């Protein structure tokens, strides 16, 4: 019963076809929306940004299909053609293949950032702005703030010592 459920519903529908169809439909709706925007009187810059977002969605869907499909296909094959543990080499080979396909499928969760960097110049500019202007300057300020503080304390001590010497010199001259 489990083999039929896994073969005909879990792997093909829940982990394979359903997420692919949903993401494909969403990207097609985004594409239609961008085409509709082109017909309206919307500034060229806005249309260009909308095209970039649509391209990012399409690239994401293509990557999702390419990374998720092998694992689903392999799991359907593995469920229908089980290997007993009496054959350790074949069992180990199957486990290795499964781990490789599972690792490739889990790239879906980490690859979006890199795909967006590759496909969108605006996204690249925003990432550069955040990393350089915000994070780097904040880190630089925090690192230098400790040095400035130390320098300021040393300066205050030197000024205090100088004032003491001047007061001592002033009182001794009178």
Automatic annotation (TrEMBL):
<keyword id="KW-0812">Transmembrane</keyword>
<feature type="domain" description="G-protein coupled receptors family 1 profile">
    <location>
        <begin position="1"/>
        <end position="116"/>
    </location>
</feature>
<feature type="transmembrane region" description="Helical">
    <location>
        <begin position="12"/>
        <end position="32"/>
    </location>
</feature>
<dbReference type="GO" id="GO:0016020">
    <property type="term" value="C:membrane"/>
</dbReference>
<dbReference type="InterPro" id="IPR017452">
    <property type="entry name" value="GPCR_Rhodpsn_7TM"/>
</dbReference>
<feature type="transmembrane region" description="Helical">
    <location>
        <begin position="97"/>
        <end position="118"/>
    </location>
</feature>
<keyword id="KW-1133">Transmembrane helix</keyword>
<protein>
    <recommendedName>
        <fullName>G-protein coupled receptors family 1 profile domain-containing protein</fullName>
    </recommendedName>
</protein>
<feature type="transmembrane region" description="Helical">
    <location>
        <begin position="53"/>
        <end position="77"/>
    </location>
</feature>
<keyword id="KW-0472">Membrane</keyword>
């Amino acid at each position: 019963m489990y083999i039929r459920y896994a073969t005909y519903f879990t792997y093909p529908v829940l982990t394979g076809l359903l997420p692919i169809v949903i993401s494909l439909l969403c990207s097609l709706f985004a594409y239609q929306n961008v085409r509709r925007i082109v017909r309206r009187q919307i500034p060229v810059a806005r249309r260009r940004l909308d095209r970039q977002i649509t391209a990012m969605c399409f690239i994401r869907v293509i990557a999702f299909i390419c990374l998720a499909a092998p694992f689903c296909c392999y799991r359907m094959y593995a469920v229908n053609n089980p290997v007993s543990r009496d054959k350790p080499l074949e069992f180990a080979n199957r486990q290795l293949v499964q781990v490789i396909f599972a690792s490739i499928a889990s790239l879906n969760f980490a690859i979006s950032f890199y795909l967006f960097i590759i496909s969108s110049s605006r996204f690249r500019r925003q990432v550069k702005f955040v990393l350089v202007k915000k994070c780097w300057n904040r880190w630089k300020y925090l690192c230098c703030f400790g040095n400035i503080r130390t320098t300021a304390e040393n300066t205050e001590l030197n000024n205090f010592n100088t004032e003491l010497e001047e007061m001592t010199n002033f009182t001794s001259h009178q």
